[in-house]
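To whoever is on call:

I kicked off a structure prediction for a single chain this morning and the downstream step that reads the tokens threw a length-mismatch warning. I double-checked the sequence; it's 290 residues and nothing unusual in it as far as I can see. Pasting both halves so you can look.
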Amino acid sequence: MKAERRHELQTNTLAAFLTDLPLYLRFHANKILIGVIVVCILILLVRHRINAAAEAKNATANSLATAQRFVEQLAVQDSQLPTDIARAQQRKKIIGDVQMAVAQVLEQTSDANDPALRAEAKLAEANMYWTLANLPVLPGASTMPGASVDSTADLLNKAETGYQNVLKNYGSQKLARTTALFSLAAIEENRHNFDKAKEYYQKLSSDKEVPVMFQNLAKNREALLPKLKTPVYIGTFSSTQPTSAPSTTESTLGASTRPDDVNVVDRFLAPLLTTQPSSQPASQPSGLRL
């Protein structure tokens, strides 16, 4: 009897609810509609924020890739231009393009959330100045209307400032820190400040967080520094002079050589050419670029 009574009560309650439902909906239709609209708006806002974040991330990646591509193509494009004026104008254009791309990356990111991307952007800008410093000097470029360029020393200073900025603000990014230290060592080799370059190599070789491959590379570069300090003589020995006083002149690495001079410097020239300032030195390996 009790089970039948409970079933009867439940049936009556359901019947009453179904009977009153149209009346309930009539009185509360506006509230229900507003609730549905609010839920839809919330869903749209969430999707918009997700899509906006993805688009911003893609835009940041594109800006960074653009800056890095400009730097990589700088030397090739420079060598293909016919005149010094054209080269100077192209260099100024690329500087502006890279700076704009880097500014977009920095604007769309923050140190707290995107330190790796910001470090890569700063490295790209510093790499641009390093590459420019190693391009051939343009005679009279400073007086060319609308095409003046910084001197090699100024470009090296700007590159150094950029790499130091990476060490100071993004030192926790291991790969960026390693790249910056190798690059600073390359700059000091370019300036013939070999003792300072040695300090940077020792920082790399003693840092346990640096990959072993790069530690070994730093040790190898440090081992070459004594040879780089030794003057390189290019010339031939005269048969009329003592062997202790060869008829030679001290020359820079960029000097031209005659075929009969090659054997005189063959033992020294091969390792030295890896640090020739006019090309990317081995102390900034391409594998480090992020």
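Update from on-call: the warning came from a stale cache, not from the record. Cleared it. Sanity check on the structure: The two ends are 81 Å apart (CA to CA).
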